[in-house]
Specification:
Number of helices: 18
Order of helices and strands: HHHHHHHHHHHHHHHHHH
Pfam families: SNF
Structural class: mainly alpha
Shape: globular
Subcellular location: Membrane
Largest sheet: none
Number of strands: 0
Protein name: Transporter
Organism: Lentibacillus halodurans
GO molecular function, one term: symporter activity
Distance between the termini: 51 Å
Number of domains: 1
């Protein structure tokens, strides 16, 4: 018998955990800072609600409708066709994503350990230098990558109910609680109003075609849609759970966390005269400086880093789960064995990304380091491509009666609501993805 979620809240928190990770807490603030602030945030919200939410519902519908992990679900719903390539696309995409995602997880893990021992906030500390040391030392970066993956594999080995769900039920509520505390402290800094205005007041003159593509990609990245991760998660779900309600809950939680991330970071950035366009290092250099001004700052920083780490882990669980589930569905191997082998392969694949700030700093792909190239490939090509394929599958291939049944189970939504969702998936989602992508290439 397949493993199942033990409760609705367990599924929602685990799905939110899959979505709320680096996308919302690490990547969103610096992408917003580099693309004009409020206009990017507003566009991100619009894409999340108009494109991301329907896609999340679609993945849930496919997963519970097929009652199998990603690859097998498409094979069951479209036997003898080429549509199962969407499942393979997702597994490969999740693998590439995890190879550089785990590198950042390793950075946060190392920061957490250093902070617990009081080695981050020190007298005359140079946070830029510390970040450079952690990312630029090959041994430290690779060790962090390895340790992060070991912990992820251990949780996945315990399965859905006893591994992912139990971890998510603890990690996600704690993350929300501490994030709110952090925001309250952040907005009380002198000069915080300028940062709040930068984040919440749209200035569309600062938004480029590339920035629009980034906002679309960020909405996919932040909701964990496009790689059929949520297809796998929803395949473990009972028929009494409302998929639209669950997807709506995950989307709102994600937008809320992105809002909290912006309110936690940008007031501090402007209060201390820092640049919001500093890029990926923004979180690692700004937060320590903020906590250094607080009473018991090292303690608060340690707690936040640990909770940030929880969010990263819950996302990593979903990525390793889609890989593990795909292999165990095809071969009668134990989950534990597959998880450890998959973790080892991801570790090897992640080494070039881990060395992108040191030994491989001068090695570039189209002018980008291995880390940045992997990030660009995933966020701007593979994720939108996967979302487009899923939209086409819903609009062209999947049985309409089964879709309606899965959409309607566990709720009292009208037939018109289903039709609205279906038409959005059939027309709005694919057309929007194509237009934004072609616009970013300068074709239209």
């Amino acid at each position: 018998m397949r493993d199942q979620w033990s409760s609705k809240i367990g599924f929602i928190l685990s799905s939110a955990g899959a979505a709320i990770g680096l996308g919302a807490i690490w990547k969103f603030p610096y992408m917003t800072g580099m693309n004009g602030g409020g206009a990017f945030f507003l566009l991100f919200i619009a894409f999340t609600l108009i494109i991301g939410l329907p896609l999340l519902i679609a993945e849930f519908v496919i997963g519970r409708g097929g009652q199998k992990e990603a690859i097998s679900a498409y094979q069951k719903l479209a036997p003898g066709s080429s549509w199962p390539v969407i499942g393979y696309w997702g597994v490969i995409g999740a693998f590439i994503l995890m190879s550089f995602y785990s590198v950042v997880g390793g950075w946060v893990l190392i920061y957490s350990v250093l902070s617990i021992f009081g080695s981050v906030i020190t007298e005359n500390a140079n946070y830029e230098q510390l970040f450079g040391m952690i990312t630029g030392d090959p041994l430290i970066a690779i060790s962090g990558l390895g340790l992060f993956l070991i912990i992820t594999v251990i949780v996945i080995s315990f399965g859905i109910k006893d591994g992912i769900e139990k971890a998510s039920k603890v990690m996600m509520p704690l993350l929300f609680i501490f994030f709110i505390i952090l925001v309250i402290r952040s907005v009380t800094f002198e000069g915080a109003a300028e940062g709040i205005e930068f984040f919440l007041k749209p200035d569309f003159s600062k938004l480029t075609a590339e920035g629009i593509l980034y906002a679309l990609g960020q909405s996919f990245f932040a909701l964990a849609v496009g790689f059929s991760v949520m297809v796998t998660y929803s395949s473990y779900l009972g028929k009494d759970v409302s998929l639209p309600f669950s997807a709506g809950s995950v989307s709102i939680m994600n937008i809320f966390v992105s809002l909290l991330a912006g309110l936690a970071i940008f007031p501090v950035v402007f209060s201390f005269g820092l640049e919001p366009t500093e890029g990926p290092g923004l979180l690692f250099m700004v937060l320590p400086e903020a906590f250094a001004q607080m009473l018991f700052g090292e303690l608060f920083l340690s707690l936040f880093l640990l909770l940030f780490l929880f969010a990263i882990f819950t996302s990593a669980f979903s990525m390793l789960e889609i890989i593990t589930a795909a292999v165990t569905a095809k071969k009668n191997y134990s989950r534990t064995r597959v998880a450890w082998i998959a973790g080892l392969i991801v570790f090897i694949a992640g080494i070039p990304a881990a060395l992108s700030s040191s030994a491989l700093a001068d090695f570039t792909i189209f002018g980008l380091t291995v880390f940045d190239a992997s990030d660009f490939l995933v966020s701007n090509i593979l994720l939108p491509g996967g979302c487009l394929l899923i939209a086409l599958f819903i609009g062209i291939k999947m049985d309409r009666a089964l879709m309606k049944q899965e959409f309607s189970n566990g709720n009292k939504l009208s037939s018109g609501t289903f039709q609205l969702w279906f038409q959005i998936m059939r027309w709005v989602v694919p057309i929007t993805i194509v237009i934004v992508f072609l616009n970013s290439l300068g074709i239209i």
